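Please review the protein record below. Let me know how this chain folds according to its tokens.
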Amino acid sequence: MFDVKKMGEQIAHLRVGRNYTQEQLAEQLKVSPQAVSKWENGKAVPEVPLLCEISRLFNCSVDRILDPSACVLRNMDFDYEFLVKPRIPVADYSGPEWPKSISSASLLTAVKLFFGLEQRKDIKGRQINDDEEYILQSALANICFGYSYSPDKCIHDSFLIYGLDYEIHSKADYSENEFIALARRQIEHGYPVIIIPKEYIDTILAVGFSDHGQTLKGLGFLEGDDQKNAKINFDQLNQYTGWYKVDCDMMILKPSNEKMPLEKACVNALLRGMTLLSNNEHCGEDKMQGFGVVIYRNWCNLLREENQRNADQIECVFPHAFIHYDNKLRTKQFFELCLNIIPGIDKELMTLAINQYNDIIASATEIATIAHQRDSFPKDSLKEKRSHIIEMLRRSSEQEELALNYIQKAAAYILKSITPPQAAGHGN
């Protein structure tokens, strides 16, 4: 005999997971909101046809609704597999704005697609993504504004615009079996988990598992890997064995009690961005990690040191040149989006700032070209090449400071009415 109260709690859990109100679920099922309320309070049970419709709507079995605890126990003695499908069919995603080397922004857009949020569809009725989402996520999570970031500390707004929240669990606080069970339970409840490794391997968006959770099924994202981060395809999942053996954190997604308007999130990102890009103090041990104009200064100093010791190659351009290009491109694109998203912003001044960034990106493109060819230059030309890079970086630093001055004036009305949010991730 199944537990009516637990069944009701499970229906409520599935409903909240889809960000449905009781009224919206009732409309989907063509019943009254009062009927949904009675189910969730354990005062009534849906008829069999309705149970089938609920299972179809939430992509789960009827058994999972009738007895949520039995789904695991019934399969403990053999190779238990579980997979949560996206809320609606998702088209292969590959946008035109490459490279997409920032893995966190791609991962966050994949989360949106998985949950079927802010739906845009192709002619086949499949949910699609676009480059605008990637640009927004690069800014909302602060990751386009610097050369060092900790995704688990800077993506609150990134999830909140979707009506989602999250918890961070460190592997260090669990045994391996406990950590595996934590991931498995989360996925069984219809929510993916994000495995964030502390070494240079895939960040995993896991939507399924096998081998009782020892193998995760999902999408992999890797910092700096344009090819891997370019496609979001839930029909072609990777398998990750031994994922629990690395030092990592687990991000558990859950519904939030609120949903942040995109306009407010962009204002927050703009204010944080101005703070981060204006930073003139070094943060961290690595001189090429941090935020703001200090990076330009440190980069130039490292190149001058190479010239002084007559280094036989241009060392301090890889991977910094490509990170620099990608960050400045996304920053400029975010400022362009602000023109349309934030009402009342001074468009003329923002355009002047964007023009400065066009010049910065042109220089960044040239530096990235030099970085790509760094092993092919004659030794007697290296000092000249480094001096040329130093000059471009010096000019770009001046242009960025000018651009930030324009942006500060363009957003003056915001600065008068809002206390700038803390720049999360600063100094990591």
